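Re: the multi-chain job from yesterday

Posting the exact lines I submitted so nobody has to dig through the queue logs.
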Amino acid sequence: MTQDWIASAGQPLRGTLDIPGDKSVSHRAVMFAALADGTSTIDGFLEGEDTRATAAIFSRVGVRIETPSPSRRIVHGVGVDGLKPADGDLDCGNAGTGMRLLAGLLAAQRFDSVLVGDVSLSKRPMRRVTAPLSTMGARIDTEEGGLPPLRIHGGQPLTGIDYTLEVASAQVKSAVLLAGLYADGDTVVREPHPTRDYTERMLKAFGVDIDFSPGFARLRGGQRLAATDIAVPADFSSAAFFLVAASIIPDSELRLRAVGLNPRRTGLLQALRLMGADITEENASEHGGEPVADLVVRHAPLRGIAVPEALVPDMIDEFPALFVAAAAADSPTVVRGAAELRVKESDRLAAMANGLRTLGLRVDETPDGATIFPGELQGGVVDSHGDHRIAMAFSIAGQLAKGEVRVGDVANVATSFPNYDALATGAGFALRKA
Ligand code: S3P
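And the result, structure tokens for all chains:
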């Protein structure tokens, strides 16, 4: 039986919220700590299903990981050559980041591995990683159409490549760089649109000699990682739902504490400001080498915009939230250049367009975007397609709707934001389990 939510008109949002740790940073922290020489402590680790699946995989390949308290991990690194074969398939759950980064890492090991995922992940394209990895010498079999499971044949000598990404994808870049750590010679990745650079920043923090600038990364194979402690900032992509909710619910004012503001993640902040949102940054500092600040968001009337295409990679996970902001604006919002949204945890263009139509709005879809015509939201039954971000987006739409919004199949919210409903109701949402 699936779990559903009922969302309805709630209170103005008020209070100070601590958003859980960043998913991208948490995945990488556990991976790189596992490969390091020595013991690393991770603070602020996201206790989500995705990141826990990655930690569980490293336990299966011989890495001892302690959990002395929630959101803290002590990882006893085994060195780049210390991983051991697992006794069966490795389950990445819902996590594209887990599967794609691990593909690069495990392709370079002496042993074979099989990476599997849940129903959603099993439909997501993997050729984008297996193609460059094969060019490096890796051997990975997929299902028909380049889909998971990934059957990785270890023991292949890898050679560095100079690779230009075909899609703007930090996951593909990271897979190639991780394989590059084991390759003969230099590995270079070039990106037409710069994507999040956590892999580059964090490899450097683990002592790897890596050259990088927006759109470019180069490392030499054969390097070792030195243990280091990692402080994970709060996840901007989780904060995004509250930025939108407080912007569109009258009389709201929220403070989101110490949110990670890596410029490759904060496209939504720029888009919302173009729409007229009132969001200020306070107490700016650095947290584990990443810029962080409190975000203070107050209700403001929003106008529709044409989302600048250059912002799309920097807000790739934020479109479900943006669609809801667009629904509450005073004029249409146009999204283009976002075809990648069709191959996320769900087809997010279709899921958002269909859901908003169910709630009474007009949404015109194109292959790479949509035009959202704002209007009064009605109650109705919408499907999250098992996608965490679609579920959270419609829980916000429900706060503005004239009737109850039933959001179907919300269990996957636990992949990235396990305490979302508690934080949301604490702030003023009307949201309950059906
Ligand atoms: C991620 C990269 C993005 C993003 C995902 C996390 C990462 O995917 O959508 O949620 O941690 O590298 P792509 O790199 O495939 O765009």
